[in-house]
What we know:
The protein is α/β, with parallel strands linked by helices and 459 residues long. It has helices at 29-44, 68-84, 95-99, 101-105, 122-127, 176-180, 188-200, 218-221, 232-242, 262-269, 287-292, 299-312, 331-344, 371-395, and strands spanning 4-7, 20-27, 48-50, 58-63, 89-94, 112-114, 134-135, 158-165, 184-185, 205-210, 249-252, 277-279, 317-324, 348-353, 400-411, 414-421, 426-430, 439-448, 453-457.
Amino acid sequence: MEYSEVCREGAAGRAAPGKTVAFCTLGCKVNQYETDAMEELFTAAGYVVKSFKEKADIYVVNTCTVTNIADRKSRQMLHRARKMNPEAVIAAVGCYAQAASAQLEADPDIDLIIGNNKKSAIVALVEGKLKDRVEVIDINHTSEYEPLHVSHVCEHTRAYIKIQDGCNQFCSYCIIPYTRGRVRSRKPEDIVSEVQRLVSGGYKEIVLTGIHISSYGLDFEKAEYNQSGGGDQLIALIETLGSIPGLLRIRLGSLEPRIITESFVRRLCRIPAVCPHFHLSLQSGCDATLARMNRKYTAAQYAQCCQLLRMYFDHPAITTDVIVGFPGETDAQFEECAAFLEQIGFAEMHVFKYSKRAGTRAAAMKDQVDESVKNERSARLLALNKSLKAAFIRQWSEKKVEVLLEEPVIIHGQTYMTGHTKEYIRVAVPGSHLAGNMVISGKLSLNFNEDCVICERID
């Protein structure tokens, strides 16, 4: 899971007294979607959105608890908000609020603790804060998908669409099933309606996101995700979205490897809007480590999934997550993992050092790995990622690509428009008469750095 931090910029306009709100989002794309939805709820109630760096009447921090660092960052942003306005209402929302409500309740800087599946009520909770300070449900015993909607998002070209919540996988290192609960899927007609509104508003690309999108629809059928895979509800949804006029790109969030069957990929490649960019969460390339992690596939099965994608798509971008220093990971097991990563040839890897999460099985495992060893292994894989990413980009040099332009940047004194190819290669295009949200054809050069690749417009 890719971790990020987004502090919202403010909107123009004057607000009535007590009617300004600022947001900070930590963690995954699901959190970003939910912040977009909460922002719309406040706006509809007459509030003006301010930058998180400005003085506001209310500060909402959408927290994350995926790692110890995420916990610490969540606390830091909550305390930063209090320093900016000692009189403000400070609301801790989301996964860290769900997991650590008792700890947060003891913190005098925090006025409200709002867990998951309660964000849709945030305006009422903030305005009635003196009645109940903590609003956290037993997330593990709800089957209700919380209704949140967006009509615009903070990005101007790409919209994240939440299609499900919760996870039933219980990987031994992961706290998220305990903070997000079981799989709860959004009704397909609700998703389609939201995407249609966004496309009508000018968005050309959507990203389907959730906590475990490969489980989408299993709760509709009261089914279990098993070794035979699943994905019928997900691929049917993608096919429906692919028929919406004006929607040029559908990008998929993180996928469970077991969903990548030949039937699934064959149907996927027939949808022109689908981007050949697939994030298949791996975590380790060593079977012994995968078993301890409670990942329900082997390295060989994962490799077969990658082969299937490459059979049906031309040079797809396959990206992944890897954890180093998992309890019991020996030097030999790490080397086995590193060799597997090189064998697959990922377009990009997100490398994480194992973070012990209280309440998970991995936290109680023997043979915890020393931090210095984690640091060494992380550095090794980050260096490998750099070389694999460069190799993937070289595969696309001098080839025609489609670019969705996003925003201007200055490189060596010259103005370029940046954007992404369907494979999620970030490019910089020189030239005049370019604007955000334009789609152009271009050819990639070998002139690139860690940020972007120079792309020559050819249409």
